[in-house]
Amino acid sequence: MERTEAKSIVEAILFTMGESVDLNKMAEVLELEKKETRSIVEELMREYEEQNRGIRIIELDGAYQMCTRGDAYEYLIRIAKAPRKYTLTDTVLETLSIIAYKQPVTRVEVERIRGVSCEHQINKLLEYDLITELGRLDAPGRPILFGTTEQFLRSFGVKSLEDLPQLSAEQVEDFRMQAEEEAQIKLDI
Q1: Parallel, antiparallel, or unpaired: how do β-strands 55-60 and 63-68 relate?
Q2: Which residues partner with 59 through β-bridges?
Q3: Are 52 and 26 in contact (CB under 8 A)?
Q4: How confident is the model at residue 49 (pLDDT cuts 50, 70, 90)?
Q5: Within 13 Å and on the Cβ side, how many CA atoms surround 146?
């Protein structure tokens, strides 16, 4: 293995692991001598320092770890504390509404109401911490039950689920008719 390729692999290992990696383990994976592996890591360490890079490699009791430079912490804290911004598409918002009003609810129940697959939308809502897994339904396959989170309440400015707007029977009927019309349009296409 060429030295350039070995350096690239060491860098990838340290970046991906995120924690310290024992020198012996790296040497074993690279199929190189321990001395050669140490030389490669130390060369990377020098390059990062000479180029004043935002990351560096540190040694911890015979292991190495990639981390950020100390003088970058102030900026990392700023970005970490920045409020998360996310966009809720109509389909994600529709899925969230169903979960909010029907919880605890399974993905299959949400899909039955929407009439389409909701796996992507549910994954987005989980990622945004607007919904969470509440447990499992005591039924065949033990499907996951979903419900809203405190982040959902904060995001929509409500104290509890009881504060969610209630739909009148007339609104429910309008929504049912719209859904039937949309379903009919899709069938005609």
Answers
A1: antiparallel
A2: 64
A3: no
A4: very high
A5: 26
| H or E segment to which residue 74 belongs | helix 73-81
What pLDDT, in 10s, does the model give residues 156-178?
878 888 888 887 777 767 766 76
Helix (H) or strand (E) holding 18: none
- Does residue 34 surpass a pLDDT of 70? yes
Q: Which of 108, 143, 7 is nearest to 64 (CA)?
A: 7
CA distance 46 to 7: 12
3-state secondary structure 126-137: HHCCCEEEEEEC
pLDDT at 10: 95
Are 151 and 132 contacting, i.e. CB atoms less than 8 angstroms apart? Answer: no
- Residues with Cβ < 8 Å from 19, sequence gap 6 or more? 65
